[in-house]
Amino acid sequence: MAWPVVVQQVAFTMVQLVDTLLVGHLGKDALAGVGLGSIVFWIPQSGIFAVGAGALAVVARNVGAGHRERGSVTVAMALMMVLAWGVLLALVMALAADPLLRAMGAEPAARDAGVTWMRAASIGFPLTAMLWVGNASLQGAGDTRTPMIIMLVVNLVNAVVAYTLINGPGPFPRLGVLGSGLGATSAGVSGAALVLLALAAGRGGLRLQPLAAFRPDAGEMKRILNVGLPVGLENLQFNLAFMVYTRIIASLGSAALAAHRVTLSVEGLAFNPGFALGVATAALVGQSLGAGRPDLAERSAKAALVWATIIMTSMGVVLMVFGEPITSLFVSGEDAGEVVDIGRQLLFVFAFAMPAMALSLTLAGGLRGAGDTRAVLAIGVFGIWVVRLLPAYLLAIVLGFDAPGAWLAAVLDINSRAVLTWLRFRQGKWKAIKV
């Protein structure tokens, strides 16, 4: 189940990497502005993650218990909720883009670029939300290949549209940062259309009835939110804390912020195997518990952990050795040398988090699939607010280690969460949770 999710997540991350690569050659201000704008977008995405995680867990339980028709109702309710959320937040992000980026401490040129990007990208936000939740529902049903194919198409659409509108070859206009935002919107539109078609066609044994979304099912919505709300809160508090974390780095200047953006994009690609195995673990744990097989659920999680540790530790070595050439792919111009040097240091530091990230992502996925999302929330709150933020400020600002010091604090956070997640999983309380 995991390898298609790896490909899917690589494709999803490539959307961000392609944008970073294309925007990076417009200069550090453009790169810093788009980077800040994308981080601000993480706040409303918490609601999407909440509905997606709830849909995955509830669909998996329904499928494991042999109730695929009920799983189809779950999908309809999840899509209805996330569409309403997406429309509301798209309006908020478009209207509040400038004050939000001011609060993040962006320099004027970077702020102007970020506002332009946010307003263009927010147009497709509701459809991107439906894409995410639709894919999560298919994964919960055990179909990981359809979301993989959809995301490959989405990545292609984004790359073609963004490249064309950013650079303006031939008869096309040269829109710069605006073209990047419109590329993200085009990707969301195409992805939502494909996932809705797949669900209507009965992929994964789920069959979306369009009119069913207009007949609210309070019971199924409650099940989704019971599992999903703690996941949404987990992501919300993480993203709020990460904005504070990014504000610390922004105070170090545009070069540090641009390197931070590049490293985040590479990081997203590097932990894809752990994320994918976490998704597979969530689906298998949910289905196994739905079928009354907690022993099989535990075996699935432990097998996924072994693979994640091997793969992600190997990727950590790659980041440590090839940090400089990797970073140099994303920037050019007279200020590229400073950004590349900082990025190299950040990737070297982050490499030490990869084994712990494997454990945290995989077993946290298993806990979410079982419905034990409150424990994952508590662990996340402790890690980022207690272990990351204060040390980041002390290391980066007070002690003068700059951006690498802030990223060292992130490594401490990830390792602490890994230990706590392992202890929670070993307790076994997740085996008795009712969803």
List keywords for this structure.
single chain, 435 residues, mainly alpha, globular
Low-confidence segments:
none
* Quaternary structure type: single chain
Helix content: over 70%
Please indicate the percent range of residues in DSSP E strands (runs of 2 or more): under 5%
Domains (count): 1
What's the N-to-C terminus distance? 22 Å
Mean pLDDT rating: 86
Please give the count of helices.
Answer: 16
Our Rg estimate from Cα atoms comes to 21 Å
SSE class: mainly alpha
Number of strands: 0
Biggest beta sheet attributes: none
What spatial form do the alpha-carbon principal axes imply? globular
Order of helices and strands: HHHHHHHHHHHHHHHH
Can you characterise this structure?
The protein is mainly alpha-helical and 435 residues long. It has one domain (2-432). Helices cover 83% and strands 0% of the residues. The chain contains 16 helices and no strands. It has helices spanning 2-24, 28-64, 68-95, 97-103, 108-121, 125-140, 145-167, 177-200, 218-250, 254-270, 272-290, 294-328, 336-350, 354-370, 373-398, 402-427. α1 runs antiparallel to α11 and α6 packs across α8. The radius of gyration is 21 Å and the shape is globular. The model has no long low-confidence stretch (mean pLDDT 86).
Summarize the structure.
The protein has helices at about 1-25, 30-65, 70-95, 95-105, 110-120, 125-140, 145-165, 175-200, 220-250, 255-270, 270-290, 295-330, 335-350, 355-370, 375-400, 400-425. The protein is mostly helical and about 425 residues long.
Write the layout of secondary structure elements.
Elements: H1 2-24, H2 28-64, H3 68-95, H4 97-103, H5 108-121, H6 125-140, H7 145-167, H8 177-200, H9 218-250, H10 254-270, H11 272-290, H12 294-328, H13 336-350, H14 354-370, H15 373-398, H16 402-427
Helix pairs in contact: 1-7, 1-10, 1-11, 2-3, 2-5, 2-6, 2-9, 2-10, 2-11, 3-6, 4-5, 5-8, 6-8, 7-8, 9-15, 10-12, 10-13, 11-12, 11-14, 12-13, 12-14, 13-16, 14-16, 15-16
